[in-house]
Amino acid sequence: MNKDQVVGKIKDLAGEAQAGLGKAINSPSQIAKGKALETEGEIQKKAGDVKETLKDAADAAKKRL
């Protein structure tokens, strides 16, 4: 795991919590902010996944040499 994967997951979970709280208190702005944070986290996590895949591919290529 890399930093982007970890931070992305944390943002994703925090966004879910914020959106849930927004629903509980009937606050559309908090729901929207939570969903935005959740989306940001998902994107960052996917960027981390890509980095990890590229790193694994580079490591495999080095082993072949």
Write the layout of secondary structure elements.
Elements: H1 3-24, H2 28-64
Helix pairs in contact: 1-2
Family: Belongs to the UPF0337 (CsbD) family.
Pfam families: CsbD
Protein name: CsbD family protein
Keywords:
0% strand; 65 residues; rod-shaped; mainly alpha
Total helical segments: 2
Mean pLDDT: 97
Number of DSSP strand runs? 0
General shape: rod-shaped
Report how far the terminal alpha carbons are from each other. Answer: 25 Å
> What portion of residues is helical?
over 70%
Counting helices, strands and paired strands, the structural category is: mainly alpha
Give Rg in angstroms: 16 Å
Low-confidence stretches: none
N to C succession of SSEs:
HH
% residues in beta strands: under 5%
| Biggest sheet architecture | none
Organism: Comamonas koreensis
Protein name: CsbD family protein
Pfam families: CsbD (PF05532)
Family: Belongs to the UPF0337 (CsbD) family.
General description of the model:
Belongs to the UPF0337 (CsbD) family. Pfam families: CsbD. Residues 4-56 form the CsbD-like domain. This is CsbD family protein. This protein is mainly α. It is 91% helix and 0% strand. The protein contains 2 helices and no strands. The protein has helices at 3-24, 28-64. Helix 1 (3-24) runs antiparallel to helix 2 (28-64). 12% of the residues are buried. The mean pLDDT is 97.
